[in-house]
Amino acid sequence: MKDVIVALDFAGREETLRFLEGFTGKKPFVKIGMELFYAEGPAIVRELKARGHKIFLDLKLHDIPNTVKKAMKVLSSLSVDMCNLHAGGTKAMMEAALEGLTREDGTRPLLIAVTQLTSTSQEAMEKDLLIGKPIDEVVMHYARNAKAAGLDGVVCSPLEAGKVHDVCGKNFLTVTPGVRFADGEKGDQVRVTTPAKARELGSDYIVVGRPITAAADPVAAYERCVKEFLG
Ligand code: C5P
Question: What is the pTM of this model?
Answer without folding.
Answer: 0.96
